Amino acid sequence: xKEVLVPLWYHLEMAMNLRLTPEQAAALRKAAAEDGISxxxxxxxAIDAYTSRRRKMILGAIEKIRTEDAELLRRLAK
Length: 78
Hints:
Elements: H1 22-35, H2 39-68, H3 70-77
């Protein structure tokens, strides 16, 4: 029987090191303290906001192309 070297739970979440400049760390610490949350929670919220905004921007760009270039897309589809 094959031995499992890495337990299954290890793959459920991803750990990472985030290297910040001293100025970034101080700004994050201050903002998190003002919001009454941990620095980790503040960083996670920032990641969520970034990834959500990015997807919305991509979908918006696709919709703009679809509507503004509808005639061109129709001709290319022929």
